[in-house]
Design brief:
342 residues; mainly beta; six-stranded mixed beta sheet; five-stranded mixed beta sheet; 35% strand; globular
C-alpha cells in the first residue's frame, strides 16, 4: 500500500443517480434496523467527549473532514444501529432459537446512495447470535426471495448442518448445531456465486462464550463490510455494521477507564484484506476469540476475508479515539469512526 493512489477510484453516486437506478418508489429512507433495546442509556452524555479549549471536533460534515464525503442517510438517528452495535447479554438458556427470514429490499447505505440488499432477519449484518459453548443453537431459515440461499456457520458442527446446500425460493430449513468452540464465528450465505451473496448483505456473527463466561466489559460488535453499488466487483462504500459514515457522525460512547471488548469480523468482499486501527490506545488481540490468553498487544490488526478477533482495551481519558481501516481509501469512503470516552 505504498502508493498514494487509490486502487479503486470511487464511483460518486448522487441521490439522482440512485433514484435513476432503483426508482423513485424504491429508495429506502434508512437502514431498516430497529434500534434500541440492547444499548445502554447514554442519552445524557454528549457525543463528542471532552477536548481542550478551542478544539473544534471534526466529523462528517464536509468532504475534507475525517468523516469524508460519505455521510450516513439523513433519516438515521444515533440509535439506528444499536441492535448490531451493542452485543446482547449472556442468558441462562441452554437452547437458543432464532427465526431468520431472508428478504430482498433496496436500502440507502450512505446519504443519497442506495443498494439492493439480501438480509437475514431484516438487517445487514444479520442479528448477533450468542450462546455458551455446548448450548444448542437452532436457526429456522425461510427464503422469501426469488433466489436460492443458505445459512453457513463457521466453527465446529455436524456436516449435515454446514449450510452449503441451497434453500429454494419459498423453502425453509432448520439448522441445529451445538455451539463450539468458544470464540467468534461468522455466518453467511454459501450459495454460488458466494461473493455476490455475501456482498449483498448475507452475513453476521455468532459469539460463543466459554462456560465460565468472560470478564465483565462493555461489549461492541464491529463487522467490516463494503457495498458495490453497480454490483460489478468494485467496492464504492466501506462500512462498519452496514452503513457508511455512521460512527463518524454518531461516535460509540463508552465510559472512561472501564474495560471494552470489541468483537471484530471482516466480511469485506472483493478485497484481499481489511484492517482495524485504533488511535491513542493499544489493545489485546484474541485471534478468532478462541484462546484464553492474548495473542499479541498492538494498535492495528489485519484480517483477511472471514477472519475475526476479539479486542480488549480501555479508554483512559475523556475524549474521542479515532478508529478506521489502515487501508486509507476504505477509511475515506465511509469506514472512519470514533469511540467517545465520557
Amino acid at each position: 500500500m505504498a502508493s498514494s493512489e487509490e486502487p479503486h477510484p470511487p464511483e460518486q453516486v448522487s441521490r439522482r443517480e440512485a433514484l435513476r437506478r432503483f426508482g423513485w418508489g424504491g429508495l429506502a429512507v434508512g437502514a431498516g434496523i430497529a434500534g434500541g433495546s440492547l444499548a445502554p442509556d447514554r442519552s445524557a452524555a454528549g457525543d463528542q467527549g471532552d477536548h481542550a479549549e478551542g478544539y473544534t471536533p471534526i466529523g462528517s460534515t464536509t468532504a475534507s473532514s475525517y468523516g469524508g464525503a460519505y455521510e450516513p442517510p439523513r433519516g438515521l438517528g444515533e440509535d439506528a444501529l444499536n441492535d448490531v452495535t451493542w452485543v446482547p447479554a449472556r442468558t441462562s438458556q441452554r437452547v437458543r432459537e432464532y427465526e431468520f427470514d431472508i428478504t430482498e429490499t433496496i436500502v440507502e447505505v450512505a446519504d443519497g446512495t442506495a443498494v439492493t440488499q439480501w438480509r437475514f432477519a431484516g438487517s445487514a449484518p444479520g442479528p448477533i447470535i450468542r450462546a455458551d459453548e455446548g448450548d444448542t443453537v437452532r436457526v429456522r431459515l425461510r427464503n422469501l426471495t426469488d433466489e436460492p440461499h443458505s445459512f453457513h456457520l463457521h466453527g465446529r458442527h455436524s456436516p449435515q448442518m454446514d449450510g452449503w446446500e441451497p434453500i429454494r425460493p419459498g423453502g425453509e430449513f432448520t439448522y441445529e448445531v451445538t455451539a463450539a468452540p468458544a470464540g467468534l464465528h461468522p455466518y453467511h450465505c454459501h450459495v454460488p456465486p458466494l461473493a455476490h451473496h455475501v456482498s449483498r448483505g448475507l452475513y453476521g456473527m455468532m459469539i460463543v462464550d466459554p462456560p465460565s463466561g468472560r470478564p465483565d466489559a462493555h461489549e461492541v460488535s464491529m463487522v467490516s463490510s463494503a457495498w458495490s453499488v453497480a454490483e460489478n466487483g468494485v467496492n464504492d462504500l466501506y462500512c462498519w455494521n452496514g452503513v457508511a459514515g455512521f460512527y463518524a457522525k454518531y461516535p460509540i460512547k463508552l465510559p472512561v477507564g472501564e474495560p471494552v471488548r470489541v468483537y471484530l469480523s471482516n466480511m469485506v468482499e472483493h478485497e484481499p484484506m481489511a484492517s482495524f486501527h485504533l488511535h491513542a490506545q493499544t489493545f489485546d488481540v484474541y485471534r478468532s476469540g478462541t484462546g484464553a490468553s492474548p495473542d499479541e498487544h498492538t494498535d492495528t490488526i489485519g484480517l483477511s476475508q472471514g477472519q475475526r478477533a476479539i479486542l480488549e482495551f480501555d479508554l483512559p481519558e475523556r475524549g474521542r479515539y479515532m478508529f478506521h481501516p489502515h487501508q486509507h481509501w476504505m477509511a475515506a469512503r465511509g469506514a472512519m469512526g470514533w469511540f467517545s470516552a465520557i
